[in-house]
Amino acid sequence: MVEHPTAQDRLAELLDAPAKTTGAGYLDVLGDAPQAGPTTGITQRVMRTTLLPQVYERFWRPAFGRLFKGPFGPGMAGEIRRATELLALEPGRIVLDVACGTGRFTRTFGAATGNHGLAIGLDGAPSMLARAVTETTGTHEDGVAYLRADAVEPPFPPSTVDAICCFAALHMFAEPERALDSFARILRPGGRVVLLTSARRDWQPARVVDTAGGILSGQRMFDRGEIAAALRARGFRIVAERFAGVTQIVAGELAGAN
Questions:
Q1: Which part of the chain is the Methyltransferase type domain (predicted)?
Q2: How far is 199 from 68, CA to CA, in rounded Å?
Q3: Is residue 2 assigned to a domain?
Q4: How distant, in Å, are the alpha carbons of 63, 76, 118, 133, 196 from that of 43?
Q5: DSSP H helices in 137-255
Q6: CATH (domain of 140)
Q7: Is 168 helix (H, G, I), strand (E, B) or coil?
Q8: String of b and e for 87-115 (b: at least 16 CB within 10 Å)?
Q9: Most exposed: 61, 75, 219, 225, by fewest CB within 10 Å?
């Protein structure tokens, strides 16, 4: 009887860096490094604690999402639905969920791409990934695999994945521009990216408050339209751009498809 490769086996074949299989059920290319890059502030430090994964998906992320998106922004279920639609996910596709946390988005992407596709959850925090593996067990696990790696420089060759999601994370990266360069590099022509990140308000008094909040929490406050312009500069056409509170969801399609 011929054994079919697991989702983790298929992920390992895609990588351009050596990976270790961990006892927690995810691959690791960072080894003993405590984190992939420099810590940008208190928010990122909290993300790396062992307690947060226990409450992240059900309490932390929905509560803080509502705080930053305001009363009219989408809830977490709406974010997931919107991301899945904007990425145009289909069975057989390969999708990378950058800064996946406990894997809520990744699991849904795995359901959309099916067992012949692959949904990859990438994060730098071992505690988040261990929780993600536990949450995924028995739920589309044949098409979902997790990876501990640098979100700014995901360890994939050029033109490897069909879609990239990065929600609620880009503003916490030390080098967000380099991350966007990486996303454009590893996407296949015609592939899509969708981002949820900060969006500083235009009204001057609010801009001062937003900027101060970003400095205190270690999060970068992007201007409205800044992310769309950055994607265009890297060869994307903008598929969607939507603002809510101090957040923006921007989706782009990489040029070059036939």
A1: 96-195
A2: 10
A3: no
A4: 14, 19, 30, 23, 16
A5: 176-186, 204-217, 226-233
A6: 3.40.50.150
A7: coil
A8: bbbeeebbbbbbbbbbbbbbbbbbbbbbe
A9: 75
pLDDT tens track for 65-88: 555 677 777 888 899 999 999 999
- Cα–Cα distances in angstroms (integers) from residue 195 to residues 67, 87, 231, 239, in the given order: 18, 10, 10, 12
Residue 130 located in a structural domain? yes
Amino acid type, 243 = F
Positions of E strands within 61-160: 94-98, 118-123, 144-148
Coil/strand/helix, residue 70: coil
In a domain, 214, yes or no: yes
What is the edge-to-edge ordering of all strands in the sheet holding 144-148? 20-21, 27-28, 144-148, 118-123, 94-98, 161-167, 187-198, 247-254, 236-244
Domain extent at residue 43: 7-254
* Average pLDDT score over residue span 31-45: 59
- Does a structural domain hold residue 143? yes
Q: Which two tokens stand for residue 119?
A: 């949904």
Query: What is the maximum alpha-carbon separation in the chain?
Result: 68
Angle, CA of 176, 10 and 181, to the nearest 5°: 20
Q: Which has more confidence, 187 or 208?
A: 187
Asked if residue 189 has pLDDT above 80, the reply is yes
Q: Could you read off the pLDDT of 136-156 as tens digits, one per residue?
A: 987 667 899 999 999 999 999
- Is residue 174 a contact partner of residue 35, using CB atoms and an 8 Å limit? no
Helices (H) and strands (E) in the chain, counts: 10, 9
- Residue partners of 54: CB distance under 8 A and separation at least 6: 131
Two tokens, residue 172? 């916490």
